[in-house]
Amino acid sequence: MTNPILKINDVTKIYGEGDNKVVAVDSVTLSITRGEVLLIMGPSGSGKTTLLSMMGCILRPTKGDVVVDEQLITDFTEDALPDIRKRYFGFVFQSFNLFPSLKAVENVELVLRLKNHDKKEMRKEALKLLETVGLGKRTNFYPEDLSGGEKQRVAFARALAGEPAIILADEPTGNLDSKTGMMVLKLLRDIAENFEKAVAIVSHDPKALDTAHRVVHLEDGRIKA
Length: 225
Ligand SMILES: Nc1ncnc2c1ncn2[C@@H]1O[C@H](COP(=O)(O)OP(=O)(O)OP(=O)(O)O)[C@@H](O)[C@H]1O
Ligand SMILES: [Mg+2]
Description:
With 225 residues, the protein is an alpha/beta fold. The protein has 6 helices and 10 strands. Residues 48-49 line the site of magnesium ion (MG).
């Protein structure tokens, strides 16, 4: 068994103070390993997005540690975090977040550019990534001309840009019909297994259970036994 690429140890996030204080995530410990899909389930407001944001070094915990590839992120300064995110993480959101004025291939290239990818190789790499997610025939389409499932696959190609070890997806099927949602979840699992990525998916959808190697249930910010 290889070491986890991402660990969070006894992590708590508290928003606000006084009467407005919300303990969004409460003493959560978990880890993910390359090749594995972890599913995070739980009702609305249970702290899933907050947890995923801390896992992705987007949000700092109030208490507890995040460890990425054996590096204790707690010790890093704020201006070191963008590099950690670029190097280790690909993010996928419910709303796809594609640039409408850019073709599929250009949407992927944009992220490669942000990740300082070799300029001359960018187009080739973007096409390869779209091929990987089964969109080799749609590379010159604009987002508005793609179906929901295809848009989400462009988002996956983008998340894979720069070969991050970890993919974090917040409700990736939230805007898809259930058949397309299943397809997209299966693709995430294939990505985890074929490319040795550690994948964490937040979802309400019980169908997502079939595609995960491991599941945690959150309730009021805590992992339910
Ligand atoms: N920026 C914020 N400031 C204050 N409270 C927040 C903030 N973000 C989230 N919360 C609160 O923290 C709790 C957890 O929110 P979070 O968004 O993590 O839940 P969630 O499980 O992702 O919900 P959903 O399924 O609706 O997306 C909620 O009570 C929410 O109101
Ligand atoms: Mg959420």
